[in-house]
Amino acid sequence: MNNLVGQEQKVASAINKLKSIYNISIGVTDLSQTLTIDEVTDIFIRINSQGVVLSQADFAMSKISADDFYGGNDTRKMIDYFYHFMRSPVDYDAIAANDTEFVESGGMQKIKWVVNETEDIYVPDYTDVLRVSFTHKFMRGKIADLVSLLSGRDFETRENLESIAEDSFHKLRQGVENFVNETNFKRYIMIVKSTGIIDTSLVRSQNVLNFGYILYLTLRDRGMNAALIEKLVRKWIVLSMLTGRYSSSPESAMDYDIKRFTEMNPEKFVATTEEGEMSDAFWNTVLVQRLDTSVSSSPYFLLFLMAQVKAGSRGFLSEQIDVSSLIQQCGDIHHIFPKRYLQKNGINNRRDYNQIANYVYTQSEINIKIKNDAPCVYMAKMKEQIANGELQYGGITDADDLKKNLAENCVPEEFMNMDSNDYKAFLEKRRILMAGFIRRFYESLG
């Protein structure tokens, strides 16, 4: 009996605590109607700066969700569910069963395909979906402009008009439906893969992929030839990586680019950008200097690997296994001048021995056998392998095939006789070879 009384008291206490919610004061911030959308957005972000920091995209999503007249909340669900199902497809049945209204509206049918999608090269979150959908339909790159437009903002008269709000909600819905369209999404992924991006490790900028999709959808809406769209999107993705186009102030860069692509002939804009930013000086000097880094996630090393994928290059000293297979099957990134060998010979600075010009992809067993030998030592054994056919490193037994393999990896042939005294000269020569290889890769894109 005492236990029962004790349980009743706990239940009563819990109920009283729940009822006390009615007495909790919730802060309300009243904003003047004279404030601009930019000022309201700034206040929204500042107020929510504690804990999980909210962004302009979050403000835009709250604006979309609060709409009761133009299907805003339905659009919000399409965005939310799409990116959620890409990450947690197992939740589909439960969500579909609970949100019968969205199912009956036909919205769920438009995104259902993503439940079975296994591609992970481009996995957008709700901010990415919103950005791409907005930019390609409104030809603007700043999310703050979307909030203004959904509020009916006329940028010329500075008035808020209901007709503009209605039109903006409808255009955004069209943009979202274009984004989540299965055919559009899968064709774009094929274009991305055709640049040599075959694995998530090869691209670190989501904004590069976002603008690539913006460009694809924009050119498709203009009815451009599919082959030409592929060429321009492919080149622009690689160009953006080469120049770090969206690495700083991405919204401003996207705003500028989408306006140029719509105001100018797209081919002309790409050609003009190449002329201005990718001259001989860029390829022969700037890119070579940018390859002077020890950051393995550097976009320039990733571009080199993409170039190898496109060229079908084999792994270092491999007879058959190509770089593409090594990347996808977790092959080893090998130091051509082994790290411990360099350390033993006085090259102790991590920035020096971890130079990306000292990196190649190779098979694990080759990497293990090379151990800590100088290039002149392990390549002497490689020469013996060619002379007598007794395999030590990989399966290459032909001198011409060895030279070809070195060329595929941009390794100068003279490295076969080098030791630690030649390391600096080796890096300089290989950076030049890598830059030339990347240039030929870019020029082959169309």
What does it look like?
The protein is globular. The mean pLDDT is 90. The longest helix is centred in the C-terminal third of the chain and has 21 residues, at 423-443. 62% of the residues lie in helices and 3% in strands. β1 and β2 form a beta hairpin. The chain has a two-stranded antiparallel sheet with strand order 1-2. A two-stranded antiparallel ribbon has the order 3-4. The termini are far apart. With 446 residues, it is mainly alpha-helical. α3 (56-65) crosses α4 and α8 packs parallel to α12 (206-221).
Secondary structure: elements and pairs:
Layout: H1 2-19, H2 37-47, H3 56-65, H4 72-87, H5 92-98, H6 100-104, H7 107-111, H8 126-138, H9 143-150, E1 153-154, E2 159-160, H10 162-180, H11 182-194, H12 206-221, H13 226-243, H14 250-263, H15 266-277, H16 280-290, H17 299-311, H18 323-328, E3 332-335, H19 339-344, H20 350-353, E4 359-362, H21 364-370, H22 375-388, H23 399-408, H24 423-443
Antiparallel strand pairs: 1-2, 3-4
Short description, anyone?
This protein is mostly helical and 446 residues long. It is built from 24 helices and four strands.
User: Spans of 5+ residues with little confidence (pLDDT < 50)?
Assistant: none
Ends distance: 84 Å
Shape: globular
Number of helical stretches of at least 4 residues: 24
**Hey, roughly how much beta strand do the residues contain?**
under 5%
Radius of gyration (CA) equals 28 Å
In total, the number of strands is 4
* Overall average residue pLDDT: 90
Classify the secondary structure makeup into a structural class: mainly alpha
| Largest sheet, strands/sense/barrel | 2 strands, antiparallel
Order of helices and strands: HHHHHHHHHEEHHHHHHHHHEHHEHHHH
Strand arrangement in the largest pleated sheet: 1-2
- What is the percent of helical residues? 55-70%
